TrEMBL record:
Source organism: Scytalopus superciliaris
Lineage, uppermost ranks: Eukaryota, Metazoa, Chordata, Craniata, Vertebrata
Name the record gives this protein: NTRK3 factor
Gene name for this UniProt entry: Ntrk3_1
Keyword terms of this UniProt record: Membrane, Transmembrane, Transmembrane helix
Gene3D superfamilies, sorted: Immunoglobulins (2.60.40.10)
Transmembrane segments: 125-150
GO biological process, one term: cell surface receptor protein tyrosine kinase signaling pathway
Domain of life: Eukaryota
Amino acid sequence: PPRILTLEEPVLHLDHCIAFAVHGNPAPTLHWLHNGQVLRETEIIRMEFYQQGEVSEGCLLFNKPTHYNNGNYTIVATNQLGSANQTIKGHFLEKPFPGRIFSLSLEFLGSWKTPKFVCLDSKAFSFQVSIAVGLAAFACVLLVVLFIMINKYGRRSKFGMKG
């Protein structure tokens, strides 16, 4: 029956690779599971291996994996005499923005402005939004009052001069 000789954590070469070696006679068929579900090969994920006698060696290759590819990977080797499986945890990227709201603020470094992401919880974010809306409303009211005053008092020319 098949026996899994090695199963290694993902390593970055040209692509990320989960290396494996499987022994079996007759040669086992290999397939992979991702978090318990059958893993389909795509342009991003593919398996390459070669058979040398009774040993199959190869890699499960990932082309630019993301946080969606994190999880448990199980290799399943099956032939007429039985099957074997082994699982390894694959971690490629952290999940971006985990359950938080992000706001773009500007941090001043000397004379350069550098964008910096600041993590805010929802209460602080809603408070900042209400402050911004209040300031914008105040500015609009001030501009309307100034416009009315300029139209009302600005039409009279002093000293009889026409402007």
